[in-house]
Amino acid sequence: SEDPVQDHRPRLLIMGLRRSGKSSIQKVVFHKMAANETLFLESTNKIIKENITSFIDFQVWDFPGQIDYFDTATYDSDVIFGEYGALIFVIDAQDDYIEALNRLHQTVLRAHERNKNLTFEVFIHKVDALSDEFKIDTQRDIQQRTTDELADVGLESIPLSFYLTSIYDHSIFEAFSKVIQKLIPQLPTLENLLNILCANSGIEKAFLFDVNSKIYIATDSSPVDMQTYEICSDMIDVIIDISEIYGRTTSFYQINDEIYGDDQTQVETNGKAGGDYGTTTDTANDAASLIKLNNGMVLCLRGVNRFLALVCLLRSDNFEKHGLIDYNFQCFKQAIADVFELKRRSAERLRHERMR
Ligand code: GDP
Fold it and tell me: Where this protein primarily resides, as one coarse class (predicted)?
């Protein structure tokens, strides 16, 4: 493939018992379905392998409860677990989870045997209905039981991470962001580039987003606060909505949006704004938008490549020098392209060596 980003999409495999919430997670994160619409999703009876047009190569392997995927005659576990990536196991925290833990245990053993490089990520899911105290107790209990069982078979060294998730808030996106970041070898470089960009442009916080899923793949090293993250990820939705409604011709909008306060809030997008985000064309690279918030801050979005966009929060005084910011941003964009280009070249070299 010619595309440097396409070649290195991190792979995610999602598993769990029936009704644990796998399809809902997929619909909400990758198809923008509203959380309450998932109530009417039909239960799946087959393995769903879906490729998603995004920086992330996300595959849902939905193993309905009645199918035994350890039956080697039916499922080839080398195919299932063979590739580099993360295995996400979803546990319904509102239900009795003993059976799910058994399944998790078997899955980890089986998968680890095939592929020592897989990372295991346990989503303790549907926690929206639990009290804070109960959430913590549940996580502690699940974590304890899982590690005890692995220790019993001498495999306590397999690293498992646990996340409390729900499709009714941003926790599912936050968990995905953490999972994805572990799979990006260039992460330290990306963070460094974001730090430099922020320091030289008076930016308070910057996120590099996978536009299609709103998962952030990197951010600068200042602490992430939930509100900033939410407003930045909401911006992507606003820009996509506006560009879907108004297309590419209108370049200035005045919106009155409850998220962003009063009618002082302004959104500007350039002629080529986000209309192509959902598609695979390259034009989204040039997307640029600006939202002036009524608290003296500015939200600024710039397309980086066909999957990624940068969303920054900065004081509007600092935005006065936006020529400098634009220049710094062009340097940043070039650096990102170089990072992925290098990665592609080394992967090609590896392939050539293997073929010899
Ligand atoms: P799957 O069989 O694993 O794909 O499970 P589904 O995605 O079909 O989900 C089963 C049910 O769980 C659906 O009714 C969803 O609405 C519900 N569900 C999924 N995620 C959540 C969540 O985060 N919170 C709550 N309360 N319900 C959820």
Answer: membrane
